[in-house]
Amino acid sequence: MESAKKLVEVKVEGRDQIKLESLDQQNKVSFIGCFEFTQLVKSYRAKFGNDVYKWPVPSGSTHSEMVIREFVKKLKGTWDYPYKDEELCHCRHVSTKTVDQAIINGAHTHELASRWTGCSTACGTCKPDVEKIIKYRVG
Ligand code: FES
């Protein structure tokens, strides 16, 4: 019989990570990160149990809430990130991932995302996409 494997992972580079590995319907959840992040994961486990598929989608704009929100939405199949290309700012060659990580780390306005990553500092065509991502991430 063939094994059914599944991996759902969300991470902030050099910071927090939460991962679900499933093999033949056995789920293993692991996480590492800062104090705030690990406390939030532990509080979710305490409130909603070990079955991460039953966790509610968190609201809020802390980096921990954003990471867990992405994780839960991916588990539920409702993650619909608003920008699909790898590179977001073509003038400055700034990747979508770089901008996204900056947003998670606190760049919650277009001005900050631009200052931290260099995106949108030439033609400005990418500005609406940066704003869409900020809105999707932060609300
Ligand atoms: S595409 Fe980002 S500044 Fe031109």
- Helices and strands, in order, run as EEEHHEEHHH
* Structural class designation: alpha+beta
Q: State which percent range the strand residues make up.
A: 15-25%
What binds here, in terms of ligands, is:
FE2/S2 (inorganic) cluster
Helix content: 40-55%
Plain-language structure description:
With 139 residues, this protein is of the alpha+beta class. It has two domains: 5-76, no CATH class; 87-138, BFD-like [2Fe-2S]-binding domain (Arc Repressor Mutant, subunit A), CATH 1.10.10.1100. The protein has five helices and five strands. It has helices spanning 35-48, 63-76, 96-104, 110-117, 127-138; strands at residues 5-11, 17-23, 26-32, 87-89, 94-95. The strands form two sheets. The protein has a three-stranded antiparallel β-sheet, with helices on one face. The chain has a two-stranded antiparallel ribbon with strand order 4-5. Helix 3 (96-104) crosses helix 4. The model has no long low-confidence stretch (mean pLDDT 93). The protein binds FE2/S2 (inorganic) cluster.
